[in-house]
Amino acid sequence: MKRALNFNAGPAAMPAEVLQKAEKHWLNIADTGMAVMELSHRSKEYEQIHENAIQGLRKLLSIPSDYEVLFIQGGASLQFSMIPMNFLHENTSGNYVLTGSWSEKALKEAQKIGSTAPIASTKENSYRSIPQLSDINTTENAAYLHITSNNTIYGTQWHTYPTQLHIPLIADMSSDILSKQIDINQFGMIYAGAQKNLGPSGVTVVIIHKDLISQDNDHLPTMLQYKTYANNSSLYNTPPTLAIYLLSLVLEWAEEKGGLQAIEKMNENKAKYLYDAIDESDGFYLGHAEKSRRSMMNVTFNLADKEKEALFLQSASDAGFIGLNGHRSIGGCRASIYNAVPEDHVYKLAQFMKSFKRNS
Ligand code: PMP
User: Does pTM surpass 0.90?
Assistant: First the structure.
């Protein structure tokens, strides 16, 4: 079976085994004679799929029983708005740590809703780093602290979280959820658009502490209240059934791979191939992120010589490597190496980088 060397940032590579399983059941799921997207979302067969996805997340991430797992549409971007709508009240402030374009966007949406404070930022050094935990001080009236756990565009990642502040910590984990073990208890809420480590686009996973789900915000549109999803198992209206089915298969696959401990190890190995290729290139390749803040998911780099950078990207594309251009906002090169990107594809890319350097 031909599989592309896919380093896209999202939508991104899916596990081949998941696609094969989906294909096997494509026309006939659970012996119904129907495809998943032909099932009623009120049928027992779909309800089982829906429950499998919730339980799969609960198991893999060891989600405690005082957290809800919700499926919402509108992408991670809608969460930028729902968070302040649901959690900001008069005289409180949404505190944001700015570590890249996505946290800037999250802040911008919150500014439309209520009062906010950008309490720390690494913009001054071109988002190469993450603030020191000791430099993060929340405002007195903070309702929550928002971070972006992995910065997809700049290639930086939080390796420890600011948990010392005694206010709910909310993390946009769109690009590193399921990439490593985390302690859910450190967070008030986690959210992630599915299209990187979880499956196809169309569903956003929200893991939220029950205490945060307000039961008295009826002034908000129904679909923008977390309680609508929590009180109805995310089945108040029609959920994105196909995306949730594929998510359930990705979760089964992750479990079969040995769970998050094993996946974390694989991700470390994969990232090491590329970071070694950068670090051992005598300055031919320049990593964007500070070493201690490097992302295990998005490896960002430039070539010292701009002309060679264009040639590198062209040659890589000619050699079949997909998606290596940096985000359109910053240029350069980026290899996204989410869970489903096979280790041998990453190894091939590292070899390609080395041979390109040798032949230049
Ligand atoms: N946050 C992060 C960290 C992202 O990487 C992205 C998408 N690349 C988004 C938010 C926006 O996600 P969506 O397209 O699902 O709204």
Answer: yes
Does ipTM come in above 0.95? yes
Tell me which residue has its CA closest to atom 4 in ligand 1: 174
Ligand 1 centre to CA of 229 (Å) is 21
- 99-118 pLDDT, tens per residue? 999 999 999 999 999 999 99
Token pair listed for 213: 């789900």
Mutate to test the pocket of ligand 1, among 79, 80, 175 (most ligand atoms within 8 A of CB): 175
Please tell me if the CB atom of residue 152 comes closer than 6 angstroms to any atom of ligand 1: yes
Domains of the chain by start residue, with CATH: 16-256 (3.40.640.10), 259-359 (3.90.1150.10)
Report whether residue 174 contacts ligand 1, using a CB cutoff of 6 Å.
Answer: yes
The answer to whether 223 and 203 have CB atoms below 8 angstroms apart is: no
Helices (H), the chain: 16-24, 44-60, 75-87, 101-113, 226-230, 241-256, 259-279, 306-318, 343-359
